[in-house]
Amino acid sequence: MITVPVSLGDRSYDVVVGRGARHQLASLVPERAKRVAIVTQVGVELEVDPGVEHRVFTIGDGESAKTLTTVEDLCRRFADWGLTRADAVVGVGGGLVTDVAGFAAAVYHRGIPVLHVSTTLLGQIDAAIGGKTGVNLPEGKNLVGAFWQPSGVICDIDALDTLPAREMRSGLGELAKYHFLGGGNLDALDIDERVARCVEIKAEVVGGDERESGRRAILNYGHTLGHAIEVATDFDLRHGEAVAIGLVYAAELAHRLGRIDTDRVAEHRRVIAAYDLPMRLPDTIGDDDLMDLLARDKKALDGLTFVLDGPAGVEVVTDVDPEVVRDALPAVRSSR
Ligand code: GLY
Question: Does this model's pTM top 0.70?
Fold first, then answer.
């Protein structure tokens, strides 16, 4: 079992990674909790025992369940059961479950402890770590939320054995990102060590910039074009698949801006290919559509903003010349 600390002063917590890590849950539940509300979805197979009286609350499947209505419904069911501020919520599932459970915990009684048992690769190396919680509005994804750090996170590698292939690919896109955020030779590691290394990188970034006032944005490497692709394809491509194309594009763009050489671009392509992820834009998406979507990026600070590799590593770059952005798009249209 590998334990990775997330250092955030009096809100520090441990992430436990490994096969059978779910059996450590009871040791992470705050001592004063007498009851635990387990928030999960139908189909999540991992069984957990928080070691105190508990009740299971299921939420719906898919992005349509990630709403304020679901949060209200959960909070009402918590209240009906008599859950108090001293008790805790445990989210068991992928990123959708932990985002919703985390947000419900953040607002119920103005905030009660939450723990996450993450059952997807994407959740284990990203969503469950770092305290971002929230739900969607009809106007956009994750537009309402809170930073609410968990009291502990469990990444049980056993859960990945039964993950559908497409869901696994979605996580692999996020995993590929960490190769360029200091992960180095992640290929050489077993899956549990690989997950733990990604968690360690994310923990270090979050520990230094919890509320994304700066460096935390590097975790969005590959996501600027990735998000645009997701929207342009109406979420036909999974998140990690879109991020994979976004990573190759970010490398090509960084190269055109004189920030990295061709060997580094080739390294991006090698990593994405090794995970058998796409690196070409679907033919159905036009350059004009992508440019429009990029201009509307909600994370943009000044002009077109990208997270780009460079001599000082991956960093946020603002005011990128739109002509260069457009000129780099053909590099992810042909297979090379
Ligand atoms: N998913 C990126 C972050 O947690 O900041």
Answer: yes
